[in-house]
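Subject: for your reference before the review

Hello V.,

The reviewers asked for a structural picture of the protein, and I figured it would be easier to keep everything in one thread rather than splitting it across files. Below is the amino acid sequence we used in the manuscript, unchanged from the supplementary table.
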Amino acid sequence: MWGIKVEKIINRLMEVGFLKTEAIIYITLLKLGRSNGYKLAKELELSKSTIYQTLENMYKSGYILMIPNSSKEYEAKNPELLFEELEKRYFENSINLKKDLSRVTNTNKEEYFYKLEGEENIKTTLLNIISNTKKELYINTDFNLEEIREELKIAIDRGVRIIVFCFNKLDNMGLRMEIYHKSNKIESFKNSSRIMLVSDLNKGLIVTKIGDKVSGILTDNQIFINIISEHIHSDIYMAKLAKIYEDTFEEKIRINTLHEKRNLIK
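And here is what came back from the structure prediction:
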């Protein structure tokens, strides 16, 4: 009955809250213009009771309009106007729902360890962490950061300090990132295998790549986060020490981070 394109429209309408019959009636009214329940039942080969009940629900939901001084004739609300109203309704409901759910959420949440699988899933998680970082982001990686350059730039522009370590040399991509390395050899990214990341000392991510398989662990466990932070800091300290070779080096190896202030050099 329906072509492929119309089926897609029906599915998209259902994704924003329409029932399937409502979506079909809405599209039909857009095509026919005004119509009543009898004509729609005949056009769509559905029972009159189904059509009348659905029209009533759609009218109450604001999807369609009733023509004044008519024998219950309806027309579809202009799509631009309808979806402007739906967007506003969705936004307001989302905010209210978020507040309501926060009231019933157990504040004594347990720490989490989430196992992640798949490159796209892990990349989405990584980008989400970057977008929610407020103060500092530590990264130890041999992956090409060019793929997430835009997200890093946005974080830097809002004041996030980004500290990166790689054994080989990385390009800063024109960004205000602090990049440390042990070797002056340029990283080739041929055998990239790891990402260790800490966001604001409250979220940690470890990603490994073995062959074609990419997996990771996301956690808010403070012990785990401290281990990752210490590892990244130690790599940076060793890289700095390799260039110093002096007896008095404590002041020179500091990088003045939240991690240091909480855990290391006083």
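For the response letter, the relevant points are probably these. Residues 79-104 form the longest helix (26 residues). Strands lie at 35-36, 64-66, 73-76, 113-117, 136-141, 161-166, 178-181, 194-199, 203-210, 213-219.

Happy to draft the paragraph if you're swamped.

O.
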